[in-house]
TrEMBL record:
Annotated protein name in UniProt: CsbD-like domain-containing protein
Superkingdom of this protein's organism: Bacteria
Chain spans, region Disordered: 1-47
Gene3D superfamilies for the chain: YjbJ (1.10.1470.10)
Biased composition (Basic and acidic residues): 1-12
InterPro entries referenced in this protein's UniProt entry, alphabetically: CsbD (IPR008462), YjbJ_sf (IPR036629)
Segments forming domain CsbD-like: 6-58
Membership in a protein family: Belongs to the UPF0337 (CsbD) family.
Length: 59
């Protein structure tokens, strides 16, 4: 994927993960809460990947 695509995918994963985590907490569903946290981490990693691609392209 490209820089922009990675950043957008990362942002959407962070938002979706945050929602999952919140619903998991509200429903006392530790599995859903954990999935949400993991999705947020994945989103952060995708955003970093996009930033790295952008930095490499700027060289």
């Amino acid at each position: 994927m490209g820089e922009f695509t990675d950043k957008v995918k990362g942002a959407s994963d962070k938002v979706a993960g945050n929602v999952k985590e919140g619903v998991g907490k509200a429903m006392n569903d530790s599995k859903l809460e954990t999935e949400g946290k993991a999705q947020q981490v994945k989103g952060k990693a995708e955003e970093v990947e996009g930033k790295v691609k952008g930095a490499v392209n700027d060289l």
